[in-house]
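>> received
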Amino acid sequence: MTHHKLIIGNCMSMQEIPDESVHLVVTSPPYFNAPFDYKGLFKSYDQYLEVLNRTAQEIFRVLQKGRIAVINIDDMLVDGEKFPIVADATKIFQNVGFRYRDRIIWKKPDGYLRISRRSGVLLQNPYPMYFYPDNLLESILIFQKGKFDYRTISKELKEASKIDTKEFSENKWYMTIWEMVNVLPGSPLEKEIAAFPEELPYRIIKLFSYKGETVLDPFVGSGTTMKVARQLGRNSIGIEIKKSLIPIIKKKLGFDEQLNLDNQGDTFELIIRKGGKHGCIS
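>> returned
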């Protein structure tokens, strides 16, 4: 039996979550003012970084000692200006107390992007100084809160959560470059949402948590992390800005009225905060 809690409200405050009660964080913050992902949500880049900073503080508070926070994020091009989000986010998480453990590059499939207006400038002007590359990569940043005590995990729980070494090897999880197919635009449960593929939280949850533990996604979007957590026998908590996504999240998890996949006694809890503005900024 697993429990899944969805909170509609401000992710910079996680008052419903006790200190050191979460075992893993997997999330992808919204792209900074991307036209397809919460367009115009942030008034400035400094405000965007402040959201990351305050969210990182809360993540550090609710995460157990020794545990992992994984952030899928990347630099962003807005109106011709490139913002160094990966570097700034890394420093933010370090400053709140996390140890920078690793960085994995997510490579999207060849052919995902064709020559765009940006990279195509050189075709129109085949001279030096006209080169602007298109991006097929995103960063998966891995942070750790102190050191993990392996002695706290029982032998039985270790065996129940054992990683399939064949899957690990054949899919090259051991590399710092992961090739994963992204969610295609217009997917039924991802409309107007820049969702990451299920393969991303699947790998992270397998690699950094044990069965029965709790996975948090403070920018839960359409609920991909929560869905995968349930499939893998973990509890989940999601925090989301948009109240309109509630039916999509419930459907994805299998808790909607039309398609209830709850055949294991799993439970779903919805919290909609009263008063104040919903969202990740205030």
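>> The two ends are 36 Å apart (CA to CA).
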